[in-house]
Write a structure and sequence with these properties.
It comes from Vallitalea longa. This is Beta 1,4 glucosyltransferase. The protein is of the alpha/beta class and about 350 residues long. It contains 14 helices and ten strands. It has a domain at about 5-165: Spore Coat Polysaccharide Biosynthesis Protein SpsA, Chain A. An eight-stranded mixed sheet has the order 3-2-1-4-7-6-10-5. The chain has a two-stranded antiparallel ribbon with strand order 8-9. A hairpin with a 5-residue loop joins β8 (about 140) and β9 (about 150). It is globular and about 65 Å long.
Amino acid sequence: MKTLSLCMIVKNEEDVLDNCLSSVSDIVDEIVIVDTGSTDKTKKVAKKYTNKIYDFKWINDFAAARNYSFSKATCDYILWLDADDVLLEEDRNKFKKLKENMDKKYEAYSMFYNYAFDDDGNVILRFRRNRIVKRKRKFKWHGFVHEYIDVQGKVCNTDISVTHRRVHNVGQRNINIYKQKISEGYKLNPREKYYYAKELFDNKLYDEGIEVFNEYLDENNGWIEDNIVACGKIADYYFRMKKYEEGRKYCFRTFQYDLPRGEHCCRLGLSYINQKDYKRAAFWYELATRLERPTSDWGFINENAYTWLPHLQLCVCYYKLGDNDKSYEHNKIAAIYNSDNESIKYNEKFFKELGYE
């Protein structure tokens, strides 16, 4: 059986680290913890699981810290996680089976990342990341913020998911790193410019964020999936500001990069609902119900836009348009996907009072 090192970088993670390590410690053969300056009980928690704890002076470079953690691994393969990640029981079982059958022909193994959830706990954003790499290949991390590992060779795409359970907000940390680099004369590459714009948005610096996003989009050198997300971020902001025409321009712009996506059809539908134009809203939600979920798992997909959400909104639209039968049918379809949703359950009760069964 192949051996596996878990390599992590941490700082002030006492609230979450135990949950992470307890979910994976019995699967891996070695745990390497690199601490970048904790002032809480992070190291004390880590010592429950490993004595391989190293200090790394923080130099505003996540890739440097991750590469250092990888340098301390000794097993055949390396797994990486963040402190607020966990493996749920179903995924733990899948992981154990994977470890028993790891094949040397693969240079890396990817897993899903369950990153965001709705109020009912359903995954609404998940994507793939390379999670396990062959140690002897010495793959390197790149990027001082929002780092990525450059994998070359054959990758096995597994059905295992890592679940993200964020507790702490990064606040100004990342944006300050970007601003420092820029002040030093560093020129951001397209990927860095995209993530810098996202950080500006996260810190509510919307005007500056839109400017950077537009620079990124106009240069036309970015990843298609990032382009689509950037347009969505700008569109959402304009819709919140009730600048509906401006927002729709960015939804339509996504059609330049790929076939229409459910997320943007739902955005367009909601923009028309907000203007009480239910006929046009219904058009976009109907289109969303006919779209296939993108086949690539490497992009950023809102699962709800391809299941219950457009049907729930069509329930609203057709009721407003006076077609109770269609409204009822769409709520029934929405319930197939998400029977616990409070709005769907309210609608079921409402239609029952109208005589629908």
